Automatic annotation (TrEMBL):
The lineage of its organism: Bacteria, Pseudomonadati, Pseudomonadota, Gammaproteobacteria, Oceanospirillales. InterPro entries: GAF (IPR003018), GAF-like_dom_sf (IPR029016), Phosphatase_reg/MetRdx (IPR051330). GO terms for cellular component: cytosol. Belongs to the free Met sulfoxide reductase family. SUPFAM superfamilies: GAF domain-like. Coiled coil: none annotated. GO terms for molecular function: L-methionine-(R)-S-oxide reductase activity. This is GAF domain-containing protein. Residues 23-140 form the GAF domain.
Amino acid sequence: MPDYTLLARQLEALLDTRDWLTNTAQTCAFIVQEVADLNWAGFYLQRQPETLILGPFQGKPACNPIPFDKGVCGAAARSRQTQRVDDVHGIADHIACDAASRAELVVPIIVGERIWGVLDLDSPRAARFSVDDQAGIERLVEVFIDASDFDRER
C-alpha cells in the first residue's frame, strides 16, 4: 500500500502553480505513477447543470458526458460523497468505458458550496481500493484543492 502521507507531501511540492488545469493534469499523472493497479485516473468537471464533462486524465479514451443520475461518478457528484466500489459490474447503472475495469474509487471535489467535479480512479483488479486507499486519495484531493485557484476557471 502506498504511503499516502508521503504522497501528499510529494504532491504538495509538485503542484507549484495555482492553475487548476495544470494541477489536474499533474495530479492524475502523479497518481498513475505512484498508485499501483490503476488503468485510468482522471477528472470529470461540472460545466453543465447536473452533468460531468471529461477533464484531464491518464488512460484509455473515456466516456463523456456523464449525467449526475448515472454511474459511479454521477453518484459521487449527486451525493457529494466518495464512492468506493469493489466490482463495478454489480452496479446496475455503471457506465462501462473500459470493460477491463473492475473496481472504482470516485472522490467529489467540492469548492465552496458547489460540486466542482470528481476525481475518478479505475482498476482492473476487483476490490482494489481499501478504506485506507480511500482516505489517502481523499487527502490527495484536499492537496489539489488547496493548491488550486478556481475563481478564474470560466
